[in-house]
Amino acid sequence: MSKRRPITSDRSISSHKSEDKEYLVSVKNFLKLNLRVKPNNTKSWLYRYNSPHSKKPKNMSLGVYPSVTFARACELWRENEDLLNQQIDPQVYRKESRKTNLKQSKNTFKNFAWQHFDSLKFKQKENTLVRKKRLVELVCSYIGDVPINEIDSVKMLDILTDIQNKSLNSKGMPTEKAERCASIASNIFMYAKARGFCDTNPVPSVKKEILSHTYGHRPAVTTPADLAILLRKIETLNAEPNTLNSLRLLAMLYVRNGDLRQMRWVDLDLKKGEWELKPQKGQGKSNMVSSMIVPLPLQAIHILNEQYEINGHTEYVFYSNTAKLKYISDNTANKCLKDLGYKDIHCVHGFRATGRTILEGYLKYPIVVIEMALGHTTKDPNGNAYGRFKYYDERAEMMQNWADYLDALRANKDTKQFKYGFKAHDTSNQIQALINELGDDAILKMILKAKS
Q1: pTM for this structure?
Q2: How many CB atoms lie within 10 A of CB 435?
Q3: Domain 224-421 has CATH 1.10.443.10
């Protein structure tokens, strides 16, 4: 058998075919570097050297051809030759480097970020997890591969500032994205710190340096006259029941749109007239309740019975088979209000301001009852927070009275009797109620008949 020609290029490699037994081919001008050709025609690079410590011959694989090209194999040869010249065993060095890289990868911000995220899966709702996942991905795009104990406050300030500058609203003001990223990052650092992988949490010291997000003005109608017009316009909407009923309930219950959209049948007791609610915004916030019972007026129960005929076979009251989260989208009701001409005049969140303002300013209800109905934490003079059943009867009466008041506004009827503490036996009120019921003409005929 003729002597095999040393390899000089990628092209020369193709001339070496597989045989019954594997064989080695040397590489010209690269002592110790060989190409190993196996019977199955697999070709790989082999570095054959003597250990600087034991002088024992060793074989070290440098990868499979053509994934590792001829040029790359020559680069690896030079790197290993440099190590040998420093009395370092290349194979030992590679094993130690892999251990170090593995340890560093386990200590990266990204590793702890996803560990922390996984720990939330059984604690938070699906839509909350979807939002948080996007924020985790955003922060990881900056520092995902950096060891978590090497990230300082200067680095975090640069990141949060950059996120804020890239997420301004149409008026050039900061959105809440940077603040939410800061909160997520802070929780990740706390998670890693509790497990001994970092000494400090650099986020709190820099969070105050970024501009605070503000929602600004939430447009809302706040007078009975304007509310009456809005209620009548809503009834003119040519919208599907899901949308129309959601607007009716928003006006009647003045809960947050996100909570109403995610209303589930399992949380409702229509016989008792109750909705057990865990407000999204109330989770982990001291100024909002984490759980509350919403008394349902008769009108709300009627609307929910209508919804049951439509969506009673699903999990959600406002189920939508076209929506990603399986219930109507955040913009559905707002779009209807804009179509009615209420852009920058009234939005879905504005129903909360409408309810609060009119209940306090016009119907004269006690502020403590209103605040509890809005899901805000309220304390007594001793500083004790009221429980979710506190003032339940008062809230139930107020909710029913409010629903009746809306009906009266919508029908352009007198609303004096809906004021808090109104005396039903007051003669003048009874006369007015009779006039409203029978009409001016009927009363006039009765008076003329009595005189005759």
Answers
A1: 0.52
A2: 13
A3: yes
